[in-house]
Amino acid sequence: MLSTDLADLKVHMADNPGAVIEDVARERKVSPRSVIEALPSSMVHIGRGEHFAAAMQDIAEWGEVTLIVHTDDAIFEFTGAVPAGEIGRGYFNLMQPKGLHGHLRHERCAGVAFVERPFMGKSSAFVAFVNADGGIMFKIFVGRDETRALRTDQLARFRQLAARIAAQPAA
């Protein structure tokens, strides 16, 4: 990306931090990772992809969260607890027979991004697992309480995990 394009993207994301990452990436013909990296530094911290399994194991202890897979064709949302998993046969396997389960190509994870930003008039916090192509594998959002506020226990866990995994400690 040219430095002028990057500067323009940073200005755009500073002015519109709640923009849908995938939409901005498509409109500007950049990767979603580039959009995340263009957010103000106080809103994003990124760790290496090698921490995929550790992040998923920690998140499995958070309770009810929302996992989102956003493709060009659909946005899938799952609200519930993320199951614990283990690495085997080349995948990170989510270990439960019903609800959310499956096999994740953890070795394609090139970054674990922790994003805290406003979205649709509310605070939001999510972990984005970024693949080797700069795309987002999936996002896991901190849950909300009965008043629709971020759950304080999960937000604390989110920030602790960010401080352990990300290159810069969470703010």
Shape, please? globular
Number of DSSP strand runs: 9
Low-pLDDT parts are none
Percent of residues in beta strands: 25-35%
The residue fraction in helices comes out at 25-40%
- Main beta sheet: strand number and arrangement? 6 strands, antiparallel
Head-to-tail CA distance between termini? 28 Å
Structural class: alpha+beta
Radius of gyration: 16 Å
The ordered string of helix (H) and strand (E) elements is HHHEHEEEEEEEEH
Task: Round the mean pLDDT to the nearest integer and report it.
Answer: 93
Nutshell version of this structure?
Pfam families: ChuX_HutX. This protein has 171 residues and is an alpha+beta fold.
Structural commentary:
It comes from Bradyrhizobium ottawaense. Pfam families: ChuX_HutX. InterPro entries: Heme_Transport_Util_sf, HutX-like. This is Heme utilization carrier protein HutX. The chain is of the alpha+beta class. The protein is 29% helix and 33% strand. It contains five helices and nine strands; from the N terminus they run H-H-H-E-H-E-E-E-E-E-E-E-E-H. The strands form two sheets. It has a six-stranded antiparallel sheet, sandwiched between helices. Strand 5 and strand 6 (102-104) form a beta hairpin. The longest helix is centred in the last third of the chain and has 14 residues, at 152-165. The protein is globular. The two termini are 28 Å apart.
